[in-house]
Amino acid sequence: MKSLFIAMDLIEIKKKVYDKCVEKQNEILENAKAAMDDAQKAANEYGPPKDRYDSFRTQLLRKRDLHAEQYEKAIKEMDFLLNLKPDNQNKELIINTLVVTNKQRFYVSIGLGKITIPDGEYYAISPQAPIYQSLKEKTKGDSVVFNGQKITILELV
Fold it and tell me: pLDDT truncated to tens, each residue of the chain (157 aa)?
């Protein structure tokens, strides 16, 4: 019966981590959009090219394009995140799994880094992360050696 309560608690924690990931990704989207808009505004304020080789205007437009690429990437990651169902319970380590190991706690979704919630610190990692590649498709109790350290999966949700 105790493991059922742990699983229910972990699902609630997983939902909190997921919500924090969505919140953090929204901030990234807003910041990328604002930076892209600012770069476009700067290019508009500078005016038309002063001559054929106007490198400053080219630099401003390149900056805008860089921010546009970041914005597009953030949109794709948000779409990926919004398609996850945080209330799913997983028995093996796959995408959309909350993982508790003897070393750290992870949420496999998109790479957002450290996520802090009242229940502790978790790391939102992408499926391309090396730690995920080492642990994928493992189950509770399985161990791997990663960067010279033995990592054991204590809980999965």
Answer: 344 445 568 899 999 999 999 999 999 999 999 999 999 898 888 877 777 777 887 888 899 999 999 999 999 999 999 999 998 888 889 999 999 999 999 999 999 999 999 989 999 999 999 999 999 989 999 999 999 999 999 999 9
Q: Structural domain of residue 113, as residue ranges?
A: 2-156
CA distance linking residue 61 with residue 42, whole number of Å: 9
Contacting residues for 77 by C-beta, under 8 A, at least 6 apart: 25, 28, 110
Domain count, the chain: 1
C-alpha 75/C-alpha 149 separation (Å) is: 35
Tokens for 91?
């028995």
